[in-house]
Amino acid sequence: MSALPNLLTSLRLVLAMFMFVALAAAAGGIPYVSARLTPEMQFGLQRWAFWAFLVAAITDFFDGWLARKLNAITVWGAILDPIADKVLVCGAILGLMSLGPQPMVALPAGLILFREFAVSALREVGADRGIKLPVTLLAKWKTTLQLLALAAELLVACWAAFTLPADPALLEPATHIAHGLLWLAAAVTLITGAQYWEAAHKALKG
Known about the structure:
There is one protein chain. The chain is about 80% helix and about 0% strand. With about 210 residues, it is mainly α. The radius of gyration is 18 Å and the shape is globular.
């Protein structure tokens, strides 16, 4: 049972990769494969990608909770968990972008990617100098908000794949909610990035 948290984290990595490949294939981005897909197969891949993302996002909560519950917190798990989170978030953003032009998604998604890579680099440089940047409570909520926003964006982007009614009275507000969540996630993401930057700056000066 003590290995279960790490197994869930590893599952999140696998599901993130599957989600991205499925979206890329559905969008026509995989040579020799995408060309052979019928529209129904493309819609099927989009549905599978959405559910893979949803299950992967759920494991983000349970692996940490189980690690604490089972007293199974390990160094490997502490390293793998943030990597799995970033792969899932980045894979979902790139998968969304592969589905076609999305002007309202591009900027907040780009800001999220910029922050994630910048903080990762900051942690790496800090580690070389013995500086630790522990995860803050706001950063934990940031990840939850990112996953919620990306789930909403994926649902909207794959709307036709779920044979949901194309009534503008339903699709339009759903799209606005998804975009609003993504912009909120981007704002919180930048705030946490600034907090890490300030913490690293103070530690280096000290």
